[in-house]
TrEMBL record, chains A, B:
Domain Pyruvate carboxyltransferase: start-end pairs: 18-292
Swiss-Prot/TrEMBL keywords: Lyase, Metal-binding
Family according to the record: Belongs to the HMG-CoA lyase family.
One Pfam family it belongs to: HMGL-like
GO MF, one annotated term: lyase activity
Domain of life, source organism: Bacteria
Name of the protein described by the UniProt record: Hydroxymethylglutaryl-CoA lyase
Length: 332, 332
């Protein structure tokens, strides 16, 4: 019996509203074994929008050879881009990843209004993920960010390995701050701080956010992107909220991870995040029942259960139709 | 590469040390399908002590018919009770559950020095778990607590369903405070606040702890017992630490749950807890590598992987011998 749960107990010093940056269709599906057809991805994005999500990372314009799962970007994006044209609160932001100018050209040609570049706080991961040094990656992003801004597009900078690295171990805070500063100087509107291997703990999160503020980067331009490899993602999110962060990345049903990072076992599940936020009385605009039903549906397409604890707990009732069915009106 | 991880970043306002109340051998195994032989349980407890845990709930003196998994209490307890006789910091507290005077007699006869009674904040669960009303359960505990205290034994009072109930839904804070007050008045030294179905969120935790303080129950007498059904256990623990709680219940490898509570999917894993606490610079006395190796060993006995995320992340290296093996000195 979960009606009325979680009970809402607002806590002092937390934001009234959080923007969830949903990464399931891109970061999540990118790391699934099953190749999902473009029409199923489009349906997934529409269902996520129907559940109230208003920022949904749609796809990635990397070279199709790099990430076969996302090779259908040219088919997928036009199939959902009308969501961005909706009026007012119904409009859905649909950011897409672009690694270079070629990717930017493809994204802009399809009408993308927000893009994201993806850097690394460590040399090891820059090499593994982009086959470049950190400096070379930033040099590659420079014209991408400049031209995106000229075209009026918003730019997010992802930064991986902000807390630990699978090859280098601990990552010093000042090293992360240095790369963040350079991404901001390139013109990124927002930075997403990635704990790609999930090793962060709440005090580390607070220390990094504080150091970024001291380097002149305001909290309003920072988002957090936690992985649940060691079960820490939600506790880390709580620390970030206490610091004033209001944009949190998560993946519906906990889809995804990172194929190039050893032992990365998946993003924070959007449902687990929403359970906590609603319990804290924080507005997200999300209908948890519809979101859970969407993840149950997607898990069915992938042929395996959702790794989200909340989805598994709520799944027995989430298999009911996402929309009112005639049966539910029988008693009226 | 996890050497040096998690990095320790102490956060303001948190305790310097936390006592982990390990419930794996009792609460964990009680809810496993596989009946574990007494000698394996004793070995489990010794390995947990070897990993640095100093409070290990050993077993339960309920009627053997109620919980067949714990019907070997008379054989198990004497097989580990020497751990309580160790000197100084090496001494291990070995609390045991007792539901009634008959159970108390059995526990005291074997030399138990700490017992726990287990009440419910809700009528529905009191009926399901003890076949009694809340009042009748408290009346049953009254002579148990009084006689335990006379015998010089410490008494913990467990309270289930402190945040939500599978039949009743939301549980009002004042209802929980009322039952806590009565358990303290009976003479319980410590109360363990159970989120048996895992629905709590951090603000709810803070609200309950604050209300208990206002009712005259100091934080020093309160422990928290969170379940990870909705992935909230560690975030809730963080809220409790911020409130000053220094005793946290958890289960090695995330063993257990509650067979009488719908959708209860397991206790907070001790390893996930230790990862966070060590990351916060909080002393636990626990060697995470040895603890993980213990949970991997126990999972092998149970024939299934550990549900702890930290255990799964660290398992590839935890399958190495817990102690130095001759092979590891080959290069010397």
């Amino acid at each position: 019996m979960t009606e009325g749960l979680p009970m809402a107990f607002p806590a002092e010093g937390l934001p009234a509203r959080v923007r969830i940056h949903e990464v399931g269709p891109r970061d999540g599906l990118q790391n699934e074994q099953t190749v999902v057809p473009a029409e199923v991805k489009a349906e997934f994005i529409r269902r996520l929008a129907g559940a109230g999500l208003r920022t949904i990372e749609a796809t990635s314009f990397v070279h199709p050879k790099w990430v076969p799962q996302l090779a259908d970007a040219e088919r997928l994006f036009p199939a959902v881009s009308d969501l961005a044209d909706r009026e007012g609160d119904a409009a859905v932001r649909l950011p897409v990843l672009v690694p270079n100018e070629r990717g930017l050209d493809r994204a802009l040609a399809l009408g993308a209004r927000e893009i994201a570049v993806f850097g690394s706080a460590t040399e090891s991961f820059a090499r593994a993920n982009l086959n470049r040094t950190v400096d070379e990656a930033l040099a590659m992003f420079e014209p991408v960010v400049a031209r995106a801004k000229e075209a009026g597009a918003g730019v997010r900078g992802y930064l991986s390995m902000c807390f630990g690295d699978p090859w280098e171990g601990p990552v010093p805070v000042e090293q992360v701050v240095g790369v963040c500063r350079r991404l901001i100087d390139l013109g990124c509107d927002e930075l997403s701080l990635g704990d790609t291997i999930g090793v962060a703990t709440p005090g580390h999160v607070t220390a990094l956010l504080t150091a970024l503020n001291e380097a002149g980067i305001p909290t309003g331009r920072l988002a957090v992107h936690f992985h649940d490899t060691y079960g820490q993602a939600l506790a880390n999110t709580l620390a970030a909220l206490r610091h004033g962060v209001t944009t949190v990345d998560s993946s519906a049903g906990g889809l995804g991870g990172c194929p190039y990072a050893k032992s990365a076992t998946g993003n924070l599940a959007t449902e687990d995040l929403v359970w906590m936020l609603h319990g804290l009385g924080i507005d997200t605009g999300v209908d948890l029942g519809r979101l859970t039903a969407t993840s149950v549906w997607m898990a069915g397409r992938l042929g395996r259960p959702s790794p989200s604890r909340t989805v598994r707990a709520l799944a027995p009732r989430a298999t009911a139709p996402a929309q009112d069915s005639p049966a539910s009106h029988k008693e009226q």
